[in-house]
Amino acid sequence: MILTLDIGNTNIKTALFEHSELKQYWRISTNRTQTSDEYGMVMLNLFNHAGVSPSQVSGIIVSSVVPTINFTIEHMCKTYFGLTPMFVVPGIKTGIHIKYDNPRELGSDRIANAVACNELYGGPAIYIDFGTATSFGALNAQGEFLGGAIVPGLKVMSDAIVDRTAKLPRFELIKPPSAIGKNTVTNLQSGILYGHVGMVKYLIHRMKEELGAPCRVIATGGMALLVKDDAPEIDVLDGLLTLKGLRLIYEKNA
Fold first, then answer.
1. Please, are residues 122 and 144 in contact by the beta-carbon 8 Å criterion?
2. What is the 8-class DSSP label of residue 51?
């Protein structure tokens, strides 16, 4: 089985694949101060709960946007799985042409999303990853990654408005009953959520215009569920898009 790890700023999403079949999926917190042994014990507990032995893992691939813990994760993989992980880094085979001004600047999670989007859904396509940041990627009909956009994610926006103001209260990030809020909390919920939806819809519209062809829109990431019902422009919700892309990249390089 192949173990995939997508290390984000907030969470580490990880999944076990047997060929193309998903066997297990877990999400743990990204903790920059945690040691390799602490991460190892978390992984062993997850494997034990699922009734899976670490010895069944034949390969590991990692996408990380948190470079400061890469060594910790690599050490954990070597110690607890006996394997050196493959990291998505510049020069790795992806099967797609990245038409970025400087391809080395492109985040490994965005590369994995582009690979999965191209191979599973085909181009032209737009993917949106609703995480700590909300990132967009556009692929043309030839499956070439053209670029995209990055904006603050829903949680970042909600935290920022509270942290940078004196009187606004902390609030739960849920959909309010209406766009016209009747109290401070529902005003904040409406502004953050429906404002984000409006931004998403507009960027999809602009990107479709620039692609110049009908295309499919795929959404992934932890906050996608909050947005999808109000954004009919989103055609597919695939919560494992990044991890599927990592599996595909591993197969191209193993």
1. no
2. T
61, 55 contact by CB (below 8 A): no
- pTM for this structure? 0.93
Residue 238 known to be catalytic: no
pLDDT of residue 104: 87
* H or E stretch covering 154: helix 154-163
250 touches 25 (CB < 8 A): no
Q: Give the residue extent of every domain in the chain.
A: 2-87, 103-241
Torsions phi, psi of 59, nearest 5?
-160, 150
- The catalytically annotated residue of 6, 109, 129, 238 is 109
Closest CA to 12 of 60, 51, 82: 60
Residues 6 or more apart in contact with residue 196 via CB below 8 angstroms: 134, 154, 157, 227
98-117: pLDDT as tens digits: 998 998 899 999 999 999 99
Per-residue pLDDT of 11-23, as tens digits, reads: 999 999 999 999 9
From CA 129, how far away is CA 153, in angstroms rounded?
9
Assess whether the region 2-87 and the region 103-241 belong to the same CATH fold.
yes
Contact present, 61 and 4 (Cβ < 8 Å): yes
CATH code at 2-87: 3.30.420.40
Residues 1, 209: Cα–Cα separation, whole Å: 41
Which CATH number describes the domain made up of 103-241? 3.30.420.40
